[in-house]
């Protein structure tokens, strides 16, 4: 298979990497992490200026109408920089939901503002009792005159404190899975903010009688669109994780070349060379799985798509753990210090293992797909 990029794709990757290198060095990232908001609005608007927030916005709404491969390349670069901004959640998942489910009026209302960075939208879908079934939603939506009333709980919505708009999945009175656009400042919406293990902002979302207008509902039955958006988000998350793995490996190799012990760089020690070779093998496995996820996430055959994505996430989770752990061990005790970037790559990779379904969960899902085939 030909895995080379087109000239346009290579330019996109170079642009994203140049932005990260020049505008988002590790020291700046640490200042963003320690800020009150935990993310940078300035960075978000710069991403918009580069057109990166418009990547998944259809051309009819002023976007670029790109695809999963372009999204993968951008997320590779953002993962290398450990960006704390809600790119996957807003520019990929939420944008995909609105683009597929929204009426012409709703698309015109939100998509251009998502592309410009004025609006940050996030999907609030996972619940405490969801388990392995993405369609197990207990949040209820009840029609009250010209409004919808929403009641329920959503667990650990990444970047929710940064959002203007939440796309809340809920069951209607006729038990249809629907999505509602809920501004975060609506009475009855409460965010219990928290920090994730990889220093990103998140929140549990409590909906207690939150009321939205009748036209806040996107589409009719949202189950298919939600599945599509979540799969696109999973592929983008895999790409972000690969970028972090790639940078963690390169950082470790550089460290082993410069760190001396017993009068020689530790990278010349054969046992450590073997460990770095193992890391490289796992990195190449992860690269292949990231390509698989990007190429399969929009496949029309749902069973084939789910099997490919489950396999990719499970194997990449294993690779992330191996590369992260080896990187820390090769750095020694100082690898766990906050001052070194490698400790933050390690935390990013540990978090990846459990986001959008754990490694074990995806292994179970893959086995189910194999039995059903």
Write the layout of secondary structure elements.
Layout: H1 7-23, H2 26-34, H3 41-49, H4 68-80, H5 87-101, H6 104-116, E1 121-124, E2 140-144, E3 147-158, E4 165-171, E5 177-183, E6 189-195, E7 201-213, E8 217-218, H7 223-258, E9 260-261, E10 264-265, H8 270-296, H9 302-331, H10 341-354, H11 359-372
Parallel strand pairs: 1-4
Antiparallel strand pairs: 2-3, 3-7, 4-5, 5-8, 6-7, 9-10
Please describe what this structure looks like.
By secondary structure, the chain is an alpha+beta fold. It folds into three domains: 7-119, Butyryl-Coa Dehydrogenase, subunit A, domain 1 (Orthogonal Bundle), CATH 1.10.540.10; 122-218, Butyryl-CoA Dehydrogenase, subunit A, domain 2; 223-372, Butyryl-CoA Dehydrogenase, subunit A, domain 3 (Up-down Bundle). Helix content is 53%, strand content 16%. The chain has eleven helices and ten strands. It has helices at residues 7-23, 26-34, 41-49, 68-80, 87-101, 104-116, 223-258, 270-296, 302-331, 341-354, 359-372; strands at residues 121-124, 140-144, 147-158, 165-171, 177-183, 189-195, 201-213, 217-218, 260-261, 264-265. The strands form three sheets. Strands 1-4-5-8 form a four-stranded mixed beta sheet, covered by helices on one side. The protein has a four-stranded antiparallel beta sheet with strand order 2-3-7-6, with no helix packed on it. Strand 9 (260-261) and strand 10 form a beta hairpin. Helix 4 runs antiparallel to helix 8 (270-296), helix 7 (223-258) packs antiparallel against helix 8 and helix 7 packs parallel to helix 9. The longest helix has 36 residues, at 223-258. It is globular, with a radius of gyration of 21 Å.
